[in-house]
Amino acid sequence: MRILQITDTHLYGDPAARHYDRIDTGAALEGLLGALGAIGPVDAVVHTGDASEDGTEESYRRLHAILDPVAERLGAPLVVTMGNHDVSAAYAAVRGPGARGTEVQDRVHELAGGGRVVVLDSSRPGAGYGELTGEQLDWLREVLAEPAAGGTVLAIHHPPLVAATPLLRSLDLEPLEELAEVLAGSDVRIVLAGHYHHEMSGSIGGVPVHVAPGVTNVVDPLGAGESERALALSGASLVELGEGAPRVVTSVLPSAGDTLGDVTVPVYLFGPAEVRAIAEAAGR
């Protein structure tokens, strides 16, 4: 399988809206897609969440208006995962209910080559952190009980990895031990995630995990210390699954939606007090 992964587009229903009063998120997405060049056909285009910033139905229509033609040109289905800024009910109103007939967007996407992408909706209304219910884990266990001929990719917004920054550690995913138990020994080849807005790798239950950088901005995980900062960059990853370990390559480019036009100026810089306030408001 070859998969183009993008994440954290944070689109608005109103095209004039700007993320942090600066980033034109629609232009950032379109510019990144235009800059990727001829990556060749893929088996799926996977968006790992925070597709929308305002959770409106119109923002999801904009998302599909931009991405559906790209996926069609690449000969692949578009797979969209819900993130903490998304509203599953609004997405369901645009694209239909999830696999269990509810607004929760858990889905199975069968691919032409015999593989599949399984989507877990880790969003919880009003929360920045991620959570999987017992019902979701039972559903995943049932799905994975029958392996796919070409293997499985699991897509989830909140990474099943310990975050690199204090703020993101307050916005993590639970329960990790239960998810690891479900994944261990399954046909899942890789877990794809977003949320952290920077590239990261690890594993859970013996399965590799790849976190792709954000489209709307890229977080600096090492240089900010106890603070949190993001730069006017956009990224995407190409994931290739064959014999042996997954092969993942990532591009990070200046944001085409940066109205300031200066990548040296952070999109935001939260000091320790601001980090604590955000964690208390949106964290676990």
Automatic annotation (TrEMBL):
Instruction: Enumerate the Pfam families for this protein.
Output: Metallophos
Q: Tell me the InterPro entries matching this sequence.
A: Calcineurin-like_PHP, CNP_phosphodiesterase-III, Metallo-depent_PP-like
Give the enzyme's EC designation.
Answer: 3.1.-.-
Recite the UniProt keywords alphabetically.
Hydrolase, Iron, Metal-binding
Q: Name one GO molecular function term.
A: hydrolase activity
Extent of the signal sequence: none
| Superkingdom to which the source organism belongs | Bacteria
Domain annotation Calcineurin-like phosphoesterase: ranges: 1-198
Task: Name the enzyme group at the top EC level.
Answer: hydrolase
Name the PANTHER family for this protein: CYCLIC NUCLEOTIDE PHOSPHODIESTERASE CBUA0032-RELATED, PHOSPHOHYDROLASE
Family assignment from sequence similarity: Belongs to the cyclic nucleotide phosphodiesterase class-III family.
Name under which the protein is recorded: Metallophosphoesterase family protein
Q: Which organism is it from?
A: Brachybacterium rhamnosum
